[in-house]
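COURSE: Structural Biology Practicum
ASSIGNMENT: Worksheet 4, Part C
STUDENT ID: 0417
INSTRUCTIONS: Below are two proteins. For each, the amino acid sequence is given first, followed by its structure token string. Answer the questions at the end about the second protein only.

PROTEIN I
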Amino acid sequence: MERVASALPYSDANAFQKTVRRFAASGPGSWLFARVLHHIDRPVYRLSGGRRTLASLLSGLPVVMLTTTGARSGAARSVPVLGFPTDDGLVVIASNYGQDRHPAWYHNLRANPEGQVEVAGVRRPFRAVDAEGEQRDRIWQQGLRVYPGWSTYERRASHRRIAVFVLGPL
């Protein structure tokens, strides 16, 4: 699978990027981003030829375009999500900014784990595996070094388990 650029650890982000990441983890920031950011990211992604999103430009985080099959509709659904490389493969975390519910793409992957991911303008098919146990714990810790806001989301969404998906090649 095409590798996404390595994820910039929080410790290496510049002051502006750290501020954006902290705001995204805050209550008002996560509320705003959950409702607005994907509407802005999609056109920015198209205009940049699949290389950037507003979120990636502002935060320094690697954003990929995830295409899943709708669990109920059966229609293809594309959404920009934070995706970071690990030794296990490309990882996406279904935090939904710590909102009460899982993101729609979580349900889509549970119903149909095959999809496509676009990284740097290159589309690749994948099969998603929900990481469990030690693998999930290890990947979660790697993710927190990139985006510590996931720990805030985990506390906020303590009533549900935030899924960690590894997207492996087909």
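PROTEIN II
(use this one for the questions)
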Amino acid sequence: MLITISILLAVIAILTGALWAISPGQAEPFLDENGNPLAGSLSEKILVDINGVEQGMFIRSKNLNNPVLLFVHGGPGMPEYWLAQRYPTGLEEHFTVVWWEQRGAGLSYHPDIPPESMTAEQFVADTIEVTRYLLDRFGQKKIYLLGHSWGSYIGIQAVAQAPELYHAYIGMGQVSYQLQSEQLAYEYALAHFRDNGDLRMARKLEAAPPTKTLPLPAGYEDLRDEYMHRAGIGTIHEMTWVITGIFLPSWQFREYTLGEKVNLWRGKVYSRSRNFGLWDTMLATDLTQQVTELAIPVYFFHGRHDYTCAYPLARDYFENLQAPLKGFYTFEHSAHSPLFEEPKKALKILLEDVLNKTNALADNR
């Protein structure tokens, strides 16, 4: 027994040491051909007071003369900059891209955040305040906003409230009416598993269907990540398991300290707490009725295989959303994250359509 305990402690010590070694926690600079910091570039990891709470962000740009793009991540509580280590986006070549980590998430996780501030309305207000910080910091009159999943839920509301701050809105994996999306995802996945002979998974789904009222059953919530990723309709179309696709890679990200990596997952659990109701609030909100018009150009990036935020619903929302200029872009090989799954196509659209205020590359223009 003593030998077994000693071996276990040794293994834990080795693993901890290895994690420390790959967790320097420093923003990696851009370097020129001589290995020196690239002139005119910026790579930083900072904390900023946003509406009374210190919130973290990574800012990456190879040229500070480039336009500013604010990335509003999904979740609630799941920052995404670390995913760019495995799935490079190329954004920093053409934008000053800001990977903000929201209140209670990642770098912005603090156990003493006022619980009463964890509301959807506060997150919308934070988005606008982060925008104002960036406008002042970089001397801009407007920036671009890209909202992903939960980030599209708060992002589109921020743009609706303060359109004068933004050049354009880009919704990726756009939320429309998430409670209805869960029904479509369930129906799609159940048929998928039956058709592919995975009767064990089909039976698990049959035993835990989503309801049309809130809260969703615990059995369904517990199964949600597993069934979506195994059906290819989750974060990444080719990602079949959240442990190997998300959890383990997050621990390999070098720009977080070990403590920040722990907080990434503490923040996810914290932000999804039923005490706050962020997830249930998003589920219950029908954005197609709440945000029906935007005063700036709107672009939706959506994966054909996305049922995390169901593709058909996003398409319908787009058709009815009023805006001076619109573009819907289907990513045939993507599920929920086209920017990471098909980065060349996403970047081409950003450069040729979004920056030029056109929709020439859009579906059925």
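ANSWER KEY EXCERPT:
Q1: The two ends are 70 Å apart (CA to CA).
Q2: The longest strand covers residues 42-50.
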